[in-house]
Amino acid sequence: MAFYFTCKAPEVNLSEVLRYSRQKKNDETVVFTKECISKANGAVSFSAVWDVFDITVSGGVTDLGPFSAESASLAKMLCDYSRCVVFAATIGADFDRLTSLYERKSPGTAVVLHGYGAERVESLCDELCGELEKRFGKISPRFSPGYGDLPLGTQTDIFRILSPEKIGLFLNSSLLMSPSKSVTAFVGVSPADTSASR
Amino acid sequence: MSLYEKLKNEIILLDGSMGTMLRSEKLKPGSPPELLNISDPDAVCAVHRAYFDAGSDVVLANTFGANGLKFGQTELEAVVEAAADCARRAARDSFSAREKFVALDIGPTGKMLSPLGELDFEDAVSAFAATARLAEKYGFDLVFIETMTDIHETKAALLAAKENCGLPVFVSNAYSEGGRLISGATPGAVAAVCEAMGADAIGVNCSFGPQALLPVAERLLEVCSVPVMLKPNAGLPKTVGKKTVYDVSPAEFNSVMKKALDAGVRLVGGCCGTTPEFIRLLRKEVDSASPKPVTEKRLTVVTSYSSETYFGKRPVLIGERINPTGKKRLREAIEKNDTDYILDLVFEQQDAGADVLDVNVGVPGCDERSLLCDLVPEIQSVCSLPLQIDSADPAALEAAVRIYNGKPLINSVNAKPESMAAVFPIVKKYGAAVVCLTLDGSGIPDTAEGRVALAMKIRDKAAEYGIGENDLIFDPLALTAASGDKAVKISLDAVSKLHALGLKTSLGVSNFSFGLPDRERFNAFALTAALAGGLDAAIANPCSAEIMRAWKTFSVIAGQDEGCAGYTEMCMELKDSATAEPQRPLAPLAAADKAPGRPVSALETAVYNGAADQAGAEARRLLSDMPPLEIVNGCLIPALDRVGKDYETGRVFLPKLLMAAQAAQAAFAEIKKALPEKSSKDGTGVIICTVEGDIHDIGKNIVRLLLDNYGFDVIDLGRDVKPDEVLEAAKRTGARIVGLSALMTTTLPAMEKTVRLLASELPECRVIVGGAVLTKEYADRIGALYAADAMETVRLAKAL
After folding, report:
1. Are B464 and B427 in contact (CB under 8 A)?
2. Mean pLDDT in residue range B505-516
3. CATH number of B298-407
């Protein structure tokens, strides 16, 4: 049974929005970026679903119980941990509607909004990981399907065990997620058992 | 007692969670719970029996995920049959003496519907139909659609149930913490769609604990004319030691459910985390409560995918501009499938404050049905207003209304028997509201009384189809004032008479001024008079300042604009647009930006700075004393080249490049008007699309905009395009440059397949590829040209 996470809007990291939208910081780009961000008012929500598994790591394979992930880089990251959190996070479908509207209406604005969406979903992941850290103590960096040698096909397993459809997150046959501004990841958590509540 | 009678007279107790009960004993994470119906029927039966013993009237069979997407037909039927057996056996074995009902449970597919996801609406209907078809065969008493998070998927499931069985259908949705569906719909919108399509009970389940869902149930009670259900989780899961438990106790759960019963909820039960213990307590509560009557709300309402618009609360403005009658440019756009032009009309009207948009694509010689079916989802993907589907062709109407995401308004039916026979079944089946024109085979009556008489005839016939008068909006027809002294007065009198009868009305007010001078002002006065007579909606041009003045002013006079907020906002906007030159100071071009010895025009500066409005105005000004092509070559192209060069050298960034391209387009649109009729572009044809399986198209759209600006004739096939469709388009259009985009590694094979197909069938065709995962090496290997970004695509295309 998975746990749900939601949070208030984290503070916007403007430098990251500029970086994701491939702009350099100057007076003009900052003003324009802020103007674009104001158009996303109300279109971003913050939801995640996660679960924790006991893991065994051996020979580049991480066994979580319900499934195993074959990836030397993931195994390397998790080898010091005995448990692992798997999560799926999204900023929601309204944001995709907004970006598709601006792709039609003002493609320049849409580029900045895409950067903003990327920053928002990463901030959501940061908030969730902060929460995991409070709960479990030491945690590893996050590691997503498609990074290094962790196959994108792992998405299928993650979706099977978390059912993130309940937070409005879906996987299509090309293993792309809808809404597009979504993240799935593994995070190693320290063995200390705690009481989890969401 | 039949289930319908029970629904009418009693409070119905549903069951609690199946998953929680099975999971604690039998269920492995990730394995389909429905297979237990076959592998361990005793375990499933025991859960049902525990709920019947605890006092449930209805249990949901273990078929939540049993649909045509998750199971093959044979396995699906076996799972459903076994589920029915388990529940029936539990009903027989239970010691409860109550009458027992078994529901076929239908949960979501787990896929997101297009356009945001990839599941086609009709595929969703088919997946649910595969299950619904088994409902009567295996003796279920009702269909229970539950935990749906999207209004479109809810509609697909309800449609499948209605098309494939004759049982009662209950519909329940899962809401997010903000009280809307995860896909954004309000409870009012969900209720409007489900009730109009014939759901027998509407409710909320799963989600959060009972306390969080109570407000949703209360909202449903305000708007539903059918019984309302509440079936919440026992709060949210938490782990205590090694066990997972929910944080709301049976007693706490019960105290909230008591409030729900007092408020008028008629069906109660529990979802995730609830057990027979919860249901046992709830039984006592239900037994001591008396059922509140379910009242008719008689709401006239239409919806988008997210929100509802009521008629009768404040005047509704229906934007009239997407209708090709008398509009040459729109007719051309429809003929050429120029969606961008149509979407611009959508944006203009939405921004101007329209409440509903009329969509009419009836152009002689065009396939109206297929045009509407393409355009309606396209509009709904960028517009959150309800649509009025406008067609004289019942087949086109039905196809569009079927796939529409929400409850649409149909335009229109009239009092001719053949019109009513064609349109009313569509209104009833798909749950729409309909505009009713007061005319018949003898034409339009020339008295208000005559038009009202036809309205009565339409109302009575609609009732025979089970369509309530709340879903009828009567249009007593606006004829031009030039057609007779009393023409306007007759229409307005008819509005007043219909209003006095408690019926809703609409008028196409722009028709009043046909053939007269100063039409906008005339329309505005006629509109004000009609509103004063009780008009509920007008089909008009929301981009007309006169209309908006009349509209907003009337809202204040009628006491419908709190604090005059809408009125003052409109005044500010009108003032802004009147003094809008220039909108913002433009950064002058630095000396280094200027070509030596050549003055920089204001148009060039406007384009460089991405100021679309100014670019358009400046182009208009220049056209008075400069030949159009000189403006293009002397101002537009240099500005684009400059911003392009600055982009490539890292002095400006992608957003600004695109803003400049858009400003150039605005200028180009003005210049185009001054060019001879013949194609203003003599450019080369370029086909672009994202490859099969790839739905991310921002990169492709950027490329389109830039190519367009540089004079290429861009044929955009959209996203997720199959290799043979690309080939077919290249053959059909004669385009010899194809641009393919892919975002993900998983879609690269489709790209390769497309490139190879084109190479073998059309070797003279050159393919340019791009996208996040592409490299030059990969492009070389598959025999395509590689463009690192949009500007490079332009350069490559120019070189070809």
Report:
1. no
2. 92
3. 3.20.20.20
